[in-house]
Amino acid sequence: MTNRRVLFIVPPTGMYIREDRCQTPIEEMKTIALRPPIDLLYSAGSTEAAGCECKLVDYPGERRSWGHLEADIREFKPQVMMMSITTPSLHKDVEAATLAKSIDPTIVTVAKGAHFNVLDREAMELYPQLDCVVRGEYEHTAAELGIGKPLAEILGITWRNAEGVITRNADRPFIDNLDSIPFPARHLAHNELYFRPDTMEMQTTIVTNRGCPHSCIYCLAPLVSGKKNRYRSTDNVVAELEECVNRYGIRSFLFRSDLFTQKKEWVIELCKKIVDRGLKIEWCSNSRVDCINAEMLEWMKKAGCWIIAYGVESGNDEMLKNIEKKATVEQARTAVRLTREAGVKSSIYLLMGLPWDTPETIEDNVKLAREIQPDFLEIFYTYPFPGTKLRQIAIEKGLLKEGDIPEDAYSNPAMGGLYLTKEQFSKLRKKSLRRIYLQPSYIWRTLRGARSPKELANYVKYGALTLKDLFSGRARNSEALKAKATE
Fold it and tell me: Whole-model pTM?
C-alpha cells in the first residue's frame, strides 16, 4: 500500500448518467434508470491495483447531501479527489472541489468527463478550484494521480502548478488491450441502488468494447473512445460476468459499448460462451439498425438478451443524411421487425431539436414510431456537446453563442432550431409522445409483455408517471389561460 487515499465521487448535484458519451439527466426520463458510475468504478479498480486506499460515493444515487460530502472528506482525508462531471451539470459539480479545498487546500482536485477533451484549458481558467482535468481514457491516469506521480509526468491531463500556470500535457494513447484493465471496483459501490426499471432487479454495467467508426454529428463516441472499435476478449467479458454473478449476486446487465453489434463473429462467440457456462443471466445492449441480422439475434436471445436499444434518431431520410447517420428509415423498420421475430424487445431513441427540424420532420418521427411499434421509446433533445460537429453548426447558424454551455439537456431543449423555438420543441415532444404512448395497441402490447405481476405493476407505475408528465404541461397551460381570462 502507498498509504495514499483517493476519494471518487459523483457530486450531489442531481441524477445523471455520467458515462462521457452519455450524459443524461434521468429525473424526467421515465424509461431511463440510474446506472452505476462505471467510469469511476474502473478508475477506482486501477487505483486500488496501484496500491491506494479508495472510497467511492455516488451522492445523488445514495440520496446523500453536501453535508455528507463534507463529513466524508474530513473523515477519509483523501490526498486526491476525482469527480465525475457532465457538461450540463459542470458549474454545479465543481462546487465539490470548492468544498474540498476549503477543508484541505492540499487535496488534489481532479475532474473527469468528455467536456475536458475539448474545453480543458477553458475549464481550468474558469474554475481555479480545480487542480487538473482528465482527457481521454482515465484508468491509468487515475492510478498515477493516486500514487502521487508528478503531474508534469502524467499523460492526458491539463493541470495547474503552484504559481497558477496551466499546462496541457501530451495526450494519453487509447488502451489497445482492454483485457489489461482491472475489473471495476464494485465492492466500493452500493450495487443495490442500480436496477432494471421493469423488474426492479439489481443491474450493473459491463463495458464490452470502446470506439465507433461512425461520425454522427451529435455523438461524443469518436472523441471519447476513438474511431477504432476495440473489443475485449470474450473470455475476459465472461470472467467479469461470473464475478458479478458469484460475488455480488447480479444477474441483470447493461452491456455498454459505442457499437456492440459491429462484429458479428465476436457477438456470437460471446453468446455461445455465456450459454456454455450456464450463467442464466439477462442483458441488454445497443445496436445500429444497419448491423443486426437474424443469426446474431438468435444467439443473443439464447444468451439472455431481452432488449436491444436502437438509435433510430429520425423517421426522415433527409434528416438522417443531415446528421450523417449513414442509415435509413427502411433499415430501422427491418431491425425492429427482426428483433421482434427473434423474441427480443426493442427500444428506439428518436432525436428532436436538430437545427433543421420542422413540424413535418417531427411528424415523420411519430409516423415511423406508430408504424414499427417498438416495445419502448424515448425522444431525446439533441445536446450540442463541445467537440461535436453539431455544436459547430449551431454556433455557425446562430443557434448557440460561442462559449455557451446549456444546462438543459435531453428532457428539455438545449437550444432552438432554424424553424422552431425551444418552446415549440417542448410542446411537440409532449404531443408526439402522447400520440405514440396512447395507442391502444401500444398499451395492450406493453401490458401483455409483462412476465409477472410485479413487472406488470411496474409497467403501470411508470406508464402513469409518464402520462402525468405528458399532460402536466397541458394542465398548466389551461390554468394559465383561465387566469389570463379573469384578469
Answer: 0.88
